[in-house]
Amino acid sequence: MRFLSKFYIDGFILSILAMVVLASIFPARGDAAEVVSLLTKIAIALLFLLYGARLSPQEAIAGLKHWRLHVTVLACTFVLFPVIGLAARVLVPHVLTGDLYTGVLFLCLVPSTVQSSIAFTSIAKGNVAGAIVSATVSNLLGVFLTPALVILLMNTTGQASVDPSAVVDIALQLLAPFFLGQLIRPKVKGFLSRYAEPTKLVDRGSILLVVYSAFSAGMVEGIWHAMSPWRILLLALVCCAILAIVLVATGFIGEAVKFDRGDRIVVVFCGSKKSLATGLPMATVLFAGHSVGLVVLPLMMFHQIQLITCAALAQRWARSAP
Known about the structure:
mainly alpha, about 0% strand
């Protein structure tokens, strides 16, 4: 039993892998895809409602004031990642095709995720207030920074633009439920302090819905069948290498800046993530007329790898939390 325990895999990670298998066999199509998308949005809104209800106003204000943390996360997202993406150019043509390298560079330019970054920070018992601000600011600024970086570093049509409704969507889906949670906090804080299971269930459930929705979209688009298995394996290895470099770098940066444990967790989870939900709509606009399916394939693959890896890290830190 002691020998077998070395190979124990957390049930949450198994659940993520199960969602990948389920989406591969039974991807959501048509009306079902609309229902899954709606359920995902509801789960994410509920998650932020619970975060707002659990955080005291003092903690939320402290999160807003922690500018060193937010600048560090932004630097990881929009400086460290693009440098890695530009360095990956040496992998063409032997490891990556031209289209796949375009996709790898694009994934390095999109903003951080919001929901999963905060959920993993919560699971790992990190600074949730700081994660909410850092991830949200990254996503909001990314609406403008990502197209600018794409135009600066890549060959596009030069007509890149982003729908301003993306900013409204972020505010309605994330910030509005959070502030509503702050308003109802006096009535529910006692219940939430006694029962942690509702937040834990929504944390993990929302991530599982995101995984199923994203992988279903890839199956429906057929992008997994556009390449040979060998090329897919090489791309997966490149995505793993990028994530490993960033995880090590963000861990080192958190230590170098002398953040406490909670803030170091924020730097690792918010600074190492890339948003599929934001990246896919941007790609359809920025690469109009291009092979968008292959361009977004690295982002989709990186998204799955980051969720599984960070789920393991979050569970490990949760067990070692003071």
